[in-house]
Amino acid sequence: MSLDSGLQTSKGLDIFDNKFIFLEYLKLSASEIYDNLLKLVFNTTSGMLHIENLKGVDGEIGLKIGENEYFGVINVGDSDKLVKLCESNGITISSKDFSNSLFQTINEDSSNLHILIGSKKFSEGWNSWRVSTMGLMNVGRSEGSQVIQLFGRGVRLKGHDFCLKRSRALRGKELERKHQAIETLHIFGLKADYMKTFKEYLKSEGIPTDERIEFVMPVIYDKKYKTKKLKVLDLQKDRDFKREVSLDLKHEQNKTIFKKVLLNLYKQVDVLDSEDQRGNVLEFNSEKLQAQHLSFINIDNVFFALQQFKNEKCWSNLSISKEVIYELLQEEDWYTLEIPETDMKINSFKNLTNFETIIISLLKKYIKAFYEYKKSEWESQFLEYRELDETKDSANLIENYTITVEDKETALIERLNSLKTMLEKEEIDDVELHRLSKKDLKVFPFDKHLYNPLIFKDKGETTLQIKPIHLNDGEKDFIGDLSVYMKQETAKYKDIEMYLLRNQSKTGLGFFTEGNFYPDFIMWIKKGEKQYINFIDPKGIRNSNPKNDPKINFSSKIKEIETQMGDNDISLNSFVVSNTSLRSLNILHTDLNYDFFESKNVLFQEDHTSTYIEKMFYKILN
Question: Rounded distance, CA 580 to CA 588, Å?
Fold first, then answer.
């Protein structure tokens, strides 16, 4: 579930991607998943594997844990030989002289058998509606027709009212995505070079093969913006941090840097459980490295690993000494280590090497945060305005969306094909976009945005992958509210021009010294000769500290930059559009009110849906 199995598809995706939707929905912890596996699959709560040779039945071997009920059956030609092989490998075995066939009971309602192991016997002469997963090893590498027959056992299902069809073929009966695993046959192969042939066979029959289909969707620009001389902030042309600054790594008391040095060593399955059913975020266990964790660390290993990291980043102006490494290791304030308490115990020398890896990971994060902060801090002294440029701003002025989707999502694929056809004609048809938009994927235009369409993906939709990243709920709602307001107030703002652009995280325009702040949107307002450049970030602020959060306080910092720039024809502003209500915030911060937040240009999207855009424009223009 953490998607780090090491087994990848030809597209570079983990083979278990989107395979455990129901488990993700249940939000079980790792221990709960393990306990359920023991109970539901292996009919036990604990114990050792036990193999029983059923001599009264030709070729059958029973599988159970301890003295519990059988959970599986092996059917092979020479059962005695296999049992001896298992015994030689330390597995507990026994024999049963008189017994009924387990294989013949698998279709009974009372059957507790969940695993069937064998060879070609299963390719003919039996049927079962229960097959859900097949794992194949050295099977069918030449006998293609027999393999197809074998797979046929799993592809069949009863369907609703014994219609023999999957729910997606029945209008109004389609199962929720979290339940669709019961209609899906999963096939895993080892040394199974027939799998490619089998996939081709499935495709020819119109059956999905769990591959991903890629769509490249062009965007359409309103070219008028090129004549408007829209301005952005940038570093002065002749300035170069690497060339002009020699930087020594040191332990620096800086919360902005410290905040970036967080290492979470919980497995993803545990992280899924960190939010309970009520949506309350649970705390991870946080630890600090103690003397016993550091006592056997090889400082040379750490030093050379950091030097290699620095070289990979091409930070030639950064110096790292062993002395400063020692100094950092003696301090505890610069990092946050989230790790299960049991993992902090030292129980072997091998375990000690894990702590060396942890230390190197923490130091790399610190060095990265330290360097980027110092670089951003230095560059903020040498800013200038320049015009928006297709080449320099290519991260924001995108050429297309890349959308990938699982091939079994036939209805979604049909919609995406229609969307691609329309965009390739350089057309924006509002009626067609509305038809193609559903809850999972909404595609819509906003005439003030530099390019169209904009794409929103529902957070519950997991089959779609979109690059650059799609809009989230807050961003979509902001554009919707802005669009409604501009239509309502057309006469009021007839003497201004307004343009909006999505600002890409990490690659767009960012302010690292302000908490690595990449505002979601840049909005330009032109009124006569004056240009108002506004950075707008719709976001939840429940977990922010309103009094000290650098992103919230950026509304003051940006005015300092405006004064520093000294251009009276350009005004800079920053706004946070909160999709967290004041009532929710006051559970943690009881002394705050709307006036406090508005003084910091924080506007409430849900509390003041009909007025917050108007307040924003008033603050900008007045």
Answer: 12
Q: What's the rounded Cα separation, in Å, for the pair 417 and 117? A: 42
For residue range 282-315, list pLDDT tens digits in order. Answer: 568 899 999 988 888 899 999 999 999 999 999 9
Residues 444 and 404 in one domain: yes
Residue 600 lies in a domain: yes
- Strand, coil or helix: 102: coil
Q: Is the dihedral of CA 248, 250, 254, 257 positive or negative?
A: positive
Closest CA to 552 of 481, 508, 603: 603
Q: Give every CB contact of residue 323 below 8 A, 6+ residues apart in sequence.
A: none
Of 151, 168, 172, give the one whose Cα is nearest residue 159. Answer: 168
- Give the pLDDT score at 272: 37
Q: What is the largest CA-CA distance in the chain?
A: 98
The answer to whether position 395 is within a domain reads: no
- Which run of H or E residues covers position 218? strand 212-218
194 and 247 together in one domain: no
Both 53 and 99 in one domain: the answer is yes
pTM over 0.70: no
DSSP 504: P
User: How, if at all, do strands 262-264 and 336-338 pair?
Assistant: parallel
Contact predicate 549/515, CB 8 Å: yes
- Does residue 443 lie in a domain region? yes
With contact defined as beta carbons under 8 Å apart, do 532 and 562 qualify? no
580 and 456 in a common domain = yes
Residues 460 and 542 placed together within one structural domain of the fold: yes
| Inter-residue contact 199 to 209 (CB < 8 Å) | yes
Q: What number of CA atoms fall less than 13 Å from residue 508's CA on the CB side?
A: 19
**pLDDT at position 101 over 90:** no
pLDDT of amino acid 198: 64
227 within domain boundaries: no
- 506-531 per-position pLDDT tens digit: 888 888 666 678 999 999 999 999 99
Asked if 129 contacts 108 with a C-beta cutoff of 8 angstroms, the reply is: no
- What's the sign of the alpha-carbon dihedral 46, 52, 57, 59? positive
Token pair listed for 401:
């969306």
Least confident of 9-23, 349-363, 562-576: 9-23
Q: Based on the domain organization, do 114 and 262 belong to the same domain?
A: no
Q: Which residues of 21-55 are buried (b: 16+ CB within 10 A; e: fewer)?
A: bebbeeebeeeebeeeebeeebbbeeeebbbbbbe
Coarse DSSP helix, strand, coil percentages of the chain, rounded to the nearest 5 percent: 35, 20, 45
Overall size of the chain counted in residues: 622
Residues spanned by the domain of 248? 240-381
**Are residues 187 and 302 both part of a single domain?**
no
DSSP 95: E
Do residues 603 and 562 both lie within one domain?
A: yes
DSSP assigned state of 46: S
Task: Assess whether pLDDT exceeds 80 at residue 187.
Answer: no
Domain count, the chain: 3
